[in-house]
Each structure stands twice: as C-alpha cells, then as structure tokens.
Amino acid sequence: MWCVFITEKQFMKFFFSQLATNTTGRYTDEFPYVSHCGRERNFIRCDDLPVVFTELVCHSAANNTDTYHLTYAGGTMSVAFQPEQVVMLPDTGRIYHIGPANGGGVGLIKSSLAIELSKFFEFADDGSVPTHFVWQGKKHKLTKSTLRRLTEVKRFQSPVVRDQ
After folding, report:
1. By C-alpha distance, which of 99, 120, 115 is closest to 52?
2. Distances from the Cα of 2 to the Cαs of 109, 110, 147, in angstroms?
3. Phi and psi dihedrals of 32, rounded to 5?
4. Average pLDDT, the chain
5. H-only helix segments in 25-157
6. DSSP label at 136?
7. How many CA within 13 A on the CB side of residue 161?
8. H or E element: which one contains 130?
9. What's the CA gap between 162 and 35, in Å, rounded?
10. Residue 107, C-beta contacts closer than 8 angstroms, at least 6 positions apart
11. Burial class of residue 135 in the structure, from the number of CB atoms within 10 Å of its CB (0-12 exposed, 13-18 middle, 19+ buried)
12. pLDDT tens, 142-153?
C-alpha cells in the first residue's frame, strides 16, 4: 500500500501552477479562473485577484547584489520585484504588482505588506496618485503597464449583464 502525504505548501504550489483563465465554456461568468487537477476542474472566483503576494523576500547573490521577490502560493512561488511595476489605486488604496501570466499577469499585494511598501511612494503635487517608488535609494518612475494589465483583468472578471 502506497501512502502519499501532500503538505499544504505542495498543494498550493500545484494549485497555482495549474491556474488559468477560465476558457472552458462552463461557468465563465461566475468563475473567471480555473485550476486543473487531472480530470477535475477547480473553478475559482475571488474578491479581487487570484494571486496575492504575501511577502517580499531578499535573495543575496554571489556578486553581493540583492534581488527581491514577491512570494505567493504559501511562499512556494514568486516573481521578481520590479519597483517601477507597482501601482496603487487611489479609490481603494490597494497596491498591485506585475504577476504570473497564468494568474492574469498581475497580483494584489497583501494589506500588511502594502502598508509597509506605501512609505516608498512619491506623489505628484495633487497627491492622489503615486508617480515614483523610491527603492534602495533609487527613484523609479512608475510605469502604466501594470495599471493597463489590471484594467484588462478587471474587465475580464466583470460579469456580463444580460437583458432579461
């Protein structure tokens, strides 16, 4: 008899590695994402985005340079942190970063981490939308590419309103 124990982290890594936009033709209005597990389909609906970055971790390289990664899926997966790819929506205060392609290409930064990162924003004169992110002594001009991608993802997630 074989007995396999799957830890929560192993499951999270597998689940998020299988994450995709729901193009199955089933439940697409209610569940914009799906994660395949063999023949099983796990249809996913979330309040915001399926990928939530929970930690910013530093990896020291042999050449004495540090690289930072935003982790998700229980810390088992990550994307390289790119300070110019951070965006804050002024109407919600939520902060996003470019993310894995299979999760829509953008991820939400967890509230407690977002609060820590918010101190690195610089604002234009009116003060409502950040224009720069100061990271490790370097001032990065925020790009609009993450915001454009976020807008596309949100449009895809919005349920279609049908005439009754």
Report:
1. 99
2. 39, 38, 48
3. -75, -10
4. 87
5. 111-118, 145-157
6. T
7. 1
8. strand 130-135
9. 27
10. 49, 51, 52, 53, 70, 72, 79, 96, 97, 98, 99, 100
11. middle
12. 998 999 999 888
